[in-house]
Design brief:
605 residues; alpha+beta; 6-stranded antiparallel sheet; 30 strands; 21% helix; 27% strand; globular; binds 4-nitrophenyl 6-deoxy-alpha-L-galactopyranoside
Length: 605
């Protein structure tokens, strides 16, 4: 099974490399167009649990994931005692508009709040069930109403998180203790019909237009107590009352199973790996917890979170970043300050994110950063190069495009001063400005008058000047192709175990003619030289007898012996003309003497 998965992954990687994907997100439901353009939103986890701040009677939350909103379940708190946390709420201080104002400052376009989280407590005045803010506090507040009004006032869309599957309050709902004690389908449907559906009707009726519903069942319905019929009933109520509201896949129905589900939710904090044609989103945290947690001290950096937005946008995805306010509405300065910094970056560089999406070049083709793309109304095609590591030599190369750009400039430069560049065949060299145009992540715009044409399958030159040819960027292979993942804390690198004669091909563009050194890294555990490697390019064939590489120690004093991967010089190849070249590697191992191939490195002498 594991092998199959790996082979599939590998094939997917190859196919992604080979295919020319279209630019628009073709599998986007009409109602999701705004979502695909907006790219960035706020998530708010706030509820009764916020009063505990991750501790109960002196004891920390009983789980290493530090999800403080789970405290009632984790620490086995009785209902009445749990509700006692409501005494900690300072209703005079709480002001949902402040959250919306912060979201706006952060450059976010929508705000999704936990209207009802797993504890079952409703943040609005629900007539359906008296387990809510209206019945159990004297505040006379309806947080959903106030948030809806603030969103409307500031031009943001409202999202509603509703825990449909899990509800620790209703006796017939799902809580994970029922894995021990069980629950009948009839009883569960009782909960569904008397709480979920009527509460959803309230939310759909009383709060104006709702941008999206965020459900939170992270499994397919087939593995849960919830039936597909129940989910379709719920979705039908949404479509009936608010046909424009989006629904995420944690409803329990995947976008593949039901194309009427509007967007896919990845796992918590999981960033995208592949370009997708349907809308998708990562919900992420600044610190590990979603709800406020007194213990929080690991704060994701601003540039890390900006990279998350960039990464996802470059693959047609969204990013929804969470805050967990306190019981007086306050937002921790560590969160607030980062959101403001993100907003500052977006106010300058937002054109690269809003209304932008994936370009056709493979993810991580360029090791200087990532690319987003948009076609403007005036018919210009803009590539946004996000430079994660500003090069000290002030030059970067954009590879894989045949056309000459019409203009290059820094997005942060209001005067749009030309950045000089040199275009040759399929590469563009940019002479970057002396000053880094943005202190966090500079963005360079490369503009074209028509959609630039791609060269498929090219391995770009790396920032350090050579070409890194790996199992990930090859264009075709015969023989052994299975990618073995890195292991043992990454001391064993990713490789292909070659047991039979196999061939691998890559494509590079040589700009500077001359002699290039060819090195290859592999592990070979035989005792004597056995089998050979051949590398062919530009009419030259280099042959190399496979050398035993022996063992090494991955970690001192840990009894951690691993195969050694060692780089050998295979020889040199002269490229006498600028142009595209194919590089072929043939590995001919002897029987029962596999070679573990890691990479080929091509670098000008
Ligand atoms: C869920 C909630 O349980 C959590 O409190 C929070 O609201 C988050 C956004 O969503 O957390 C998850 C999500 C996925 C898994 C486990 C918990 N999972 O895939 O195992």
């Amino acid at each position: 099974m594991a092998i199959l998965v790996r082979i599939t992954c590998f094939i997917v990687i190859i196919l992604l490399g080979l295919s020319q994907l279209s630019l628009s997100q073709v599998n986007t439901n009409e109602r999701a167009k705004w979502f695909v353009d907006d790219r960035f939103g706020m998530f708010i986890h706030w509820g009764v649990y916020s009063g505990a701040e991750g501790y109960w009677k002196g004891e920390k939350l009983r789980h290493g994931n530090n999800y403080s909103e789970w405290i009632q379940y984790r620490n086995r708190i009785e209902r009445d005692e749990y509700l006692g946390l409501l005494d900690k709420f300072d209703w005079n201080a709480i002001d949902p508009e402040k959250w919306v104002i912060l979201a706006k400052k952060a450059g976010m376009k929508y705000v999704t709040i936990t209207a009802k989280h797993h504890d079952g407590f409703a943040l609005w005045d629900s007539k359906v069930r008296d387990y809510d803010i209206g019945s159990l506090t004297n505040s006379k507040r309806d947080i959903i109403k106030e948030l809806a009004q603030a969103c409307a006032k500031h031009g943001l869309k409202l999202g509603i998180y509703y825990s449909h599957w899990i509800d620790w309050e209703h006796p017939d709902s799902w809580d994970h203790s029922k894995e021990v004690y069980g629950i009948s389908a009839e009883d569960y449907d009782q909960y569904w019909q008397e709480k979920v559906i009527p509460q959803m009707r309230e939310l759909l009726t009383n709060y104006g237009p709702i941008g999206l519903f965020w459900f939170d069942m992270w499994k397919n319905h087939s593995e849960t107590v919830v039936t597909k019929e129940q989910l379709l009933q719920l979705k039908a109520v949404i479509r009936e009352l608010q046909p424009n509201a989006l629904v995420n896949s944690r409803l329990g129905l995947s976008v593949e199973e039901d194309s009427d589900v509007d967007f896919q939710s990845l796992q918590d904090n999981e960033l995208g790996q592949f370009k997708k044609e349907h809308p998708w989103q990562t919900a992420g945290t600044i610190s590990p917890s979603w709800g406020y947690f007194a213990k929080d001290s690991e704060w994701r950096s601003t540039s890390n979170m900006l990279r998350a937005i960039i990464n996802n946008t470059s693959l047609n995805g969204n990013y929804m970043l969470n805050i967990g306010p306190r019981t007086n509405g306050d937002i921790h300065y560590e969160m607030e300050s980062r959101l403001i910094e993100m907003g500052e970056w977006l106010s300058v560089n937002g054109d690269a994110i809003y209304g932008s999406g994936a370009f056709d070049l493979p993810k991580d083709m360029h090791d200087w950063g990532q690319i987003t793309y948009k076609k403007t109304d005036e018919g210009k095609h803009k590539l946004f190069l996000h430079i994660f590591n500003w090069p000290l030599n002030k030059t970067i190369t954009l590879s894989g495009l045949k056309d000459k750009p019409s203009k290059v400039y820094a997005l942060a430069d209001k005067s749009r001063k030309d950045i000089s560049f040199k275009h040759q065949d399929v590469v563009v060299h940019l002479n970057l400005p002396a000053e880094q145009p943005d202190k966090l992540i500079p963005v360079i715009v490369v503009e074209y008058d028509q959609k630039p044409e791609i060269v498929d399958d090219l391995t770009a030159m790396s920032v350090s000047g050579g070409y890194s040819l790996t199992p990930r960027n090859l264009i075709s292979a015969t023989g052994d192709v299975e990618l073995v993942e890195k292991a043992r804390y990454e001391t064993i690198p990713e490789h292909i175990k070659v047991t039979t004669s196999s061939s691998y091909k890559w494509k590079i563009y040589i700009e500077e003619v001359g002699k290039y050194n060819i090195d290859t890294s592999y592990s070979f555990q035989g005792n004597d030289n056995a089998g050979n490697i051949e590398i062919t390019a530009a009419g030259t064939l280099l042959s190399h007898v496979i050398i035993p590489t022996g063992k090494t120690v991955g970690e001192p004093d840990e009894d951690w012996v691993i195969d050694n991967y060692h780089a050998s010089r295979v020889g040199e190849i002269e490229f006498s003309k600028a142009g595209l070249y194919q590089i072929e590697l043939k590995v001919n191992p002897e029987i029962n003497k596999p070679l573990k191939f890691q990479w080929v490195w091509v670098e000008k002498q």
